[in-house]
Amino acid sequence: MSDLPARRLLLVHAHPDDESINNGATMARYAAEGALVTLVTCTLGEEGEVIPPELAHLAPDREDRLGPYRVGELAAAMAELGVTDHRFLGGPGRFRDSGMMGVEQNERANAFWNTDVDTAAPYLVEVIRETRPQVLVTYDPDGGYGHPDHIQAHRVAMRAAELAADPAYRADLGPAHTIAKIYWNRVPRPVAEAGFARLRAEGSAFPAAAAIDDVPGVVDEDRITTEIDA
Question: What is the pTM of this model?
């Protein structure tokens, strides 16, 4: 543990690409500054939407090989962001992407959403006690926009942080560690409003088809405690 860098950041995300969408700039900044940036991804994203026609064969209703492909995409993203410590929760493929809320995939035996929180949390406790982060970043209780795996990632992250700090819990997973700061990803309302204004100025049809309150994760500015300038 004495060999760990002075600053250590842990991020917990549900699927490959969630980390880049939500925290890519944060990860790149702190990695460049020499902090230990650890990413834990909870599933392989097997149920994700496949957009390019040339990759349609990977979809879960065809060859069901999207997960391994996304592992490669994630590795490439980490190389671009300068992040060298990436893990899958419990190992690659232990928990499967649950799909969107209300679909039958939610009920699979190995679906992340269908996993007891206290079954998944010990895998993250082990990472916390090994890397000893001062800061944890994950989703809010609604998972940003209600995706079951995002909600579950929040629950598992918060539970693992609690358990990791308890000296009486699973000494075999390493000495207890308390995370000093836990942040949830949010979008300040003025930032969303400014984005809509730019789209209108550019002649985009999007602002006419949606409202600020349709954008996931928007909260009033007084609820924002920390900003990372990208």
Answer: 0.94
**Nearest CA to 123 among 75, 91, 81?**
91
How far apart, in Å, do the first and last CA atoms of the chain sit? Answer: 31
Which residues, listed in sequence order, are joined to residue 38 by a DSSP beta bridge? 10, 85
Residue 95 · residue 112 · CB < 8 Å: yes
- Maximal CA-CA distance, the chain: 59
DSSP-assigned letter for residue 74: H
Give the span between the Cα atoms of 225 and 219, in whole angstroms: 12
Question: Residue 216: its pLDDT value, please?
Answer: 85
In whole angstroms, give the CA distance from residue 65 to residue 56.
10
Predicted confidence band at 68 (pLDDT cuts at 50, 70, 90)? very high
Confidence tier at 100 by pLDDT (50, 70, 90): very high
